[in-house]
Amino acid sequence: MFSRRKWMKVLGAGMSALDGWGQAPLRFPGKRSMLVQNDFPEDLETPAEYLNTWITPNDAFFVRQHLPRPKVDAASWRLKVGGMASNPLTLTLDDLKRMPQVKVPATLECAGNGRANYRPKVPGLQWSKGAMGNAEWRGVRVADLLKRAGAGAGVQYGNFNGADQGVAKTPDFIRSIPMRKLTHEATIVALEMNGAPLPEIHGFPARLIVPGWDGANWVKWVTEMELSAEPSKGFFFATGYRYPKYSPAPGSAVKPEDMEVLEGMAVTSYFAHPAHGATAKKGIPLRLQGVAYGGENRVSRVEISTDGGAKWLDAKLSPQNYPFAWRLFTFDWIPPERGYHVLCSRATDSAGRIQPVECPWNPGGYMYNAIERLGVMVEA
Amino acid sequence: MKWLLGLVLVLPLAAAGPEAIEKGKAEEKRACVGCHGLRIVHVQRLSRAQWDRELTKMAGWGAPIKDREALLEYLVATYGDDRAVAPIPRSEDASNRKK
Asked: Is residue A278 part of a domain?
């Protein structure tokens, strides 16, 4: 694992090459051309044009890191399951590979996806719409680990820690997942992502998959599951990733006691094609494409408006119809007349949730899911 | 008279000239890059109160800020909520796929 000193050396070299301002070309081995929200640690947004396949390839998948990425040695890596357990476990990677493996297709979305749209602005990475991707994850059910470890009757939470560590006094990244979610058959410790070992930047050798819940729960480089009656008191669970219990006036402060932990994600949809500001020709068909996601629910409907939301028509949905995973939508549009047209997409999920015209402002800039509006200039 | 009081309060902020900004910029580089790159700072557009809270949070997390005033003035002047949002840069394609 990289020591802090070594990271500082790497960072120092990088910074002198970039003069601290990122003038040098940005390049992230193993990644396509990405939108660079930050270069150290890497926070990379998937450009909208890659949101056009049911499986997001690993090399186009977005990256969010709070702390410098650890270099994990597979041979010495261990997953410890302890705390309130009658049979605490220390498992090697091979031990995990020998356990029954399951595949879970699931969309990973950062809680702050779409934060750039909030007004007033809120602190944090200014994600547009590409802090999400869909992958097939393969690994071991957490329920199987709980059984093997002999989780006690009083266990309420699994408190997960990864190999990444806080720099200076930055808190360690620890997340608590309640038992009702941990025991779900789709909650796994993944070893593979889209048929390949987890890439280092996505949590090699193991990351937690918490389908339908925001990405902060999907702990990377996971090394420890502590079974406890109490959740973590650390910043990244007790303070960070909290959402108001009521809808506050935009820009207003919310008391800590009026905040609660985020769980299931909102229903949302985004266009992959065309891009905002694109041009089209009158009478020439244009295929609108995008993705729709319902958190823990299935996506049951996507409607399209090509006149700013006055009239809505159903889009065609891709055949994959699972909870936790997005669906692709397409809509063939024949631009009827010259001029500026506002295209909108609106998803509905199997719980009947539907995207709003405006979603509630909140101090963390989380859960953005307002109907996307995208302008296209149609030429004669 | 209220307008005069307002002017007196605003003048010191508006007077953050190039030298003060450079001082704050140097402080940012000195105090922040030990833990993270600066892009995460520069993508944001925040009010004075929000930048102030961010500095408090970062100092609590160990950022060795010495000239807090200069840093705050620089952030407000350069990345304030009245500043235009800058486009997010694209990286080079460094994937291993066949192109």
From this structure: yes
